[in-house]
Amino acid sequence: MSKHELSLVEVTHYTDPDVLDIVKDFHVRGNFASLPEFSERTFVSAVPITQLEKFENKEVLFRPGFSSVVNISPSQNFSCERLPSGIDFCDRNKLSVRTIEKLLVNAFSSPDPTSVRRPYPSGGAQYPIEVFLCRLSENTENWQIGTNVYHYLPLSQALESVATCNTQSLYRSLSGGDSERLGRPHFALVYCVIFEKALFKYRYRGYRMALMEAGSMYQNAGLVADQIGLRNRVWAGFTDSYVAKTMNLDQRTVAPLIVQFFGDVTDDKCLQ
Questions:
Q1: Residue 130 sits in a domain of what CATH number?
Q2: What pLDDT is recorded for position 81?
Q3: How far is 130 from 152, CA to CA, in rounded Å?
Q4: Number of compact structural domains in the chain
């Protein structure tokens, strides 16, 4: 048994069952069916498509009509702008597993192998969000044959085998069934919440902190991807139960929150 290993039974012992039931009930309200067969019968937004553009990329003023803003000089900005979200992914070029490993260890693990700290914050150091690596393309070098879904262990810096499903089935579930919208990414990361681990210490507040932690994680992964030559896209257009079943996850304990696709895009390396 690893010195970092934790039994969920221990966590469950301190979890309030009423809090767990209420949070799960709220969580499933965000589920919906995302499959081509149901595209005419399911929707998320009630805003007409023709009206959506006027709401995008805007900022809200809390005192509209008053000239109370204080401008900041653009010269203060020293950060690099993140690359646009990838679309039209292309797996024509081989991707080395070493590149994937580089993304995982830099986004989610400490450079100090003796440290238990991670590159992103977590309420009470509980880290209830787990990362799963999903292979979506056969065009990967040095991938261990037989497993296409792994669970990343950030302290051990190791991969735990989870499922052997084929890449086509996996991509169909993660993409919401309509892969033409994305092209062909090489792999994806699926961020999942362990309910008991999120709730046993901070109760309802822990659920809120877990969601913010997931955002910190995929933002960090996106910034690392920019540095190592990968494009990425964060994706919520999937059916939760379909993803969990395909990945061999027990939804009574863990639930997928968000998917992040990685690879080349057609206007980058695929045109070289």
A1: 3.40.109.10
A2: 84
A3: 8
A4: 1
